[in-house]
Amino acid sequence: MTQAFRLFGDFAHRYDLHTPPDHYRDDHAFVLDEFRAAGARRILDVGCGTGVFVEKALTAGLDAHGIDAAPAMVAQAERRLGPGRAAVQAMEEIGGGPALDGICALSWVINYAANADAAIAILRRMYGAMAPGGRLLLQCAHAPNMQAAVFEDREPGADGTPDDVVFLFQFAPLGPDQVKARYVYAGKSAGELLWEEHALNIANAELLARLAGRVGFSGVRIYGSWRRDPLGGSVSAWVVADRGAAA
Ligand SMILES: C[S@@+](CC[C@H](N)C(=O)[O-])C[C@H]1O[C@@H](n2cnc3c(N)ncnc32)[C@H](O)[C@@H]1O
C-alpha cells in the first residue's frame, strides 16, 4: 500500500459500523459459489479487511486465509477469526505459501495498485501462487460509468442508536481508469469525524481483464455484478479468470 489510510488505520475499529458486514452478502455468496464451482479448497482473500468474507468462507468449509496491508484491519480480522487466519501482507508481496485453489479481492482492493505495471506484477504473483485450475475473482471500480454522485448511508452506532453513524461517499472519475474516492465518516455519539480521499487506479474492468489475460489467466470474463450480468452501466464489476494448467 503506497499510502496509509486512516479509514483502514486508526478508524479500522469503526469499519464494520459504517460498512456493515451484511451489506455485501450477495457478493460473498457469489464468490463462494464461484469457488465451489472451481472445486476450490484453499483460498486467499486479498485485502481481507475485518475478515468478514474469510469467516463466511470458513463457515462454508473452505480452508480460508486473508491478508491485508493495514495492521489495524488485520487486528480487527483476528478479533473475528482468532489467530492464524489473517496476516499483514501487501498484495504486492503475495506468494511463498502453499498453492492456492482460489484468490479473491473484494470491494476494490485491486484498485489500490499504484498503476498498470504494479497491477501486472500483482496479477503475476497471484498466478504464481495458484494451483492449476485455480480461480481468481477481483471486484473492481469501473470509472467509465461513474458520475461523481454523492451517496449517504446511515447506520446504527456501536450501542444500537439509530442513525448514529453517517457515511458519505463519492466516486469522481478522473479518466477512463482512475477514480478519486472521497469518504466522510461521522460517529455522532462518539464525536468522531473523518474525511479522506483515496486514489483508485486500474479502475476499468476491461483493462483489468486484459492485464489478467496478459499474465496467463484464461477464460477471463467480466460481470456487471454478482448476478453475472453484462458490464452495462455498472460502477463495480467482477473480473473472473482461471489459472489453466499451462503457463
Ligand atoms: C475497501 S476495503 C475492503 C475490505 C474487504 N475486502 C471487504 O470487502 O470488506 C480495502 C482494503 O484493502 C486493503 N488494502 C489496500 N491496499 C492494499 C494492498 N496494497 N495490499 C493489501 N491490502 C490492501 C485496505 O487495508 C483495506 O482493508
From TrEMBL:
Residue ranges constituting the Methyltransferase domain according to the UniProt record: 43-134
InterPro entries from the entry?
A: Methyltransf_25 (IPR041698), SAM-dependent_MTases_sf (IPR029063)
Coiled coil regions, renumbered to chain: none
**What Gene3D superfamilies does the annotation carry?**
CAC2371-like domains (2.20.130.10), Vaccinia Virus protein VP39 (3.40.50.150)
Gene Ontology biological process terms in this record? methylation
* Keywords, sorted A to Z: Methyltransferase, Plasmid, S-adenosyl-L-methionine, Transferase
One Pfam family cited in the UniProt record for this chain: Methyltransf_25
Q: Does the keyword tRNA-binding apply?
A: no
Which GO molecular function annotation, any one, does this entry have? Answer: methyltransferase activity
Name of the protein in question: Class I SAM-dependent methyltransferase
